[in-house]
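Reopening closed ticket. The problem is back. First fold of the pair:
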Amino acid sequence: MVSRVRTVLGDIRPAELGVCDAHDHLFLRSRQLPGQELDDVPAARAELAAFRAAGGAAVVQWTPYGLGRRATDLPELSRTTGVRLVCATGLHQAAHYETELLGSLRGRLAEVFVSELTEGIGTTGVRAGLIKVAGGFHALDGHARWTMTAAAEAHRATGAPIAVHLELGTGALDVLDLLCGELGVPGDRVILGHLNRFPDPVVQRQAAASGCWLAFDGPSRAHFATDWRMPEAVRALADAGFGDRLLLGGDTVVAGARSVDGGPGMPYLLRRVRSRLEEALGAELVDRVLTEHPGRAFAADWA
């Protein structure tokens, strides 16, 4: 069986993905972010067009079940902008959801994930291409264990990769102990997000040793050590032999962060971050991080 990346317009060969923002959001609605929703189709189209103009070719949207993915709009956005889009299933932290919605998923969460990966999201026909779950701050609560157990079951049924939100970049080793240890998910099927937010080189090397993917995503905020520490971190990982496990993303989560609304947005990844990392890693490796690596990380032998 040949591995394929599952986009909203169908499965493609990994090499067809092109320059990829490996972690971002076109749409996102959460009760944790009132009044800051990403819910504007024209703004999403403009953001994709700006990313395309900067040299981008693909975006992986990590917005999971129940948080306003707008899967119905994704195929047309992909067609009109020429940017390939990958959509997620999965479930975020419990705080993002109403209790009633979570209760309705008890006993059938893995089934929902599998259905969205193989049959499509609702009646849209859009199939998800990854499973997104989330850890907690330096720990895994019962909700995280429930969602990750369901994600592992869905992975075994479909081959889909599992992408993990690390809360403030923490808990990477606990996540790997659960997913790869207890639940038996191969390390190269796990993508850890937000590692740049907790720049511990020892943890990053230990995580990389599992074979997982290390995603450095999101431009600097005042309380995160992101851009200015990222070159040092990725260079250390490359020097330790883990340069082939790196991914880069923008992680735009609120409307004000879009480039079309005055923020850094998706183009920032290529406009600023890329050149800075080239000084640390060299242009050849950064090019592979943006093109070859996402194709490998998000491809699957779809069952």
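Second fold of the pair, where the issue appears:
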Amino acid sequence: MTGLIRTVRGDIEPGSLGICNAHDHLFMRSPQLPGQELDDAHAALTDLDSFAALGGGAVVQWTPWGMGQRLDQLPELSRRAGVHIVAATGLHQAKHYDATELAGVYDDLAALFVHQLTAGPVRAGLIKVAGAFHHLDEHTRHTLAAAAEAHHATGAPIGVHLEGGTAGLAVLDKLAGTHGVPPDRIILGHMHRFPDSAIHRQVAAAGAFIGFEGPSRAHHAADWRLMDIITALVDNGHSDRILLGGDTVTAPARSTGDGPGMSFLLHTLRPRIERELGSETATAIFTTNPSHAFAVEWTK
């Protein structure tokens, strides 16, 4: 593997990443989740410590610009927990922002993304944007174009929140087909929420990474399908395209609340994958695949 992974404490070799929680949140706020903010640094450290105690080596925080990233606090959390942290820039759906705040950056998103990827003492290593439910609305098309421009300026990978797991093929076509982003620089998140294995296979065959996250308190109806979905991809030769994350988005879902927290990935999900699909598949999903997905030949 080539390139470097940009963490909040500097760039590292891909082989140093370790076992990775490829999609989670240490801090986050949204007007869509009033009173459930992830804003407690002690709770974030507790979750990181529990993950590290089970062998976890890295966490990718998908919290984009304007949603309480707290970039300045991430290096110290990383140091104290002994866990690499990759931060995100980017923009979520418009409903997650104050309209006035959003208007101030909307026309120059690519510059904002590039700045957070390349400037300042704490740099992001991922661009996170979002789709709409079963389609690409105007906001999605605008942010995908900005993400692609920032990718071409820096090399950074693009992670996409798929609403309800939908519109993955449309997002992939827009980023790769229209904007020329290499598929292996694209991560399509939440695809297990729309458990159509034929679509998953098409995305994997195109070369993009597929993100499965959970268990999710908001979308737990899809959790019981997760192993079948993973198995279908593995059986079709796509074990190298799968990423797994915890996606803790509210304070009650943390290990300091009523859980399960990010440690679930390692005390429950990884052992099951090892039993049912083998240790090589588990290593690919938790270690090898993230080291490829987030490694970049940075141009800035």
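Update: turned out to be a display glitch only; the data is intact. The mean pLDDT is 95. The longest strand covers residues 19-24. Please close again.
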